[in-house]
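Predict structure. Chain length: 99.
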Amino acid sequence: MEPYDYHVFVCTCLTCSKKDADSVLRAFRQKVEKRGLLGKVKVARTGCLSKGECKYGPLVVIYPQGVWYRFVTINCVEEIVEKHIVGGQLVSELLHFKR
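Prediction complete.
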């Protein structure tokens, strides 16, 4: 198996789940599949990413760059996939920070 080009982590902790994180997770999985990126992009559920950051949720972290996006909704997913994953550009209005 080849390594993934991108690994997308969607926080589904209690706080983020209350902000519809499960729908964001499903939207990422659907968009990645629809775009034909399975095998290149892995989308995973994660617990709390960082104590104190929950107020910015749902949070999404994309590796290998270590880019954190905040306040991600299902309406943001297509833009993140198209601009960041396909186009290699950060979605600046959602950017929380980059390691």
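Summary: Strands lie at 6-11, 41-46, 60-63, 67-69, 95-98.
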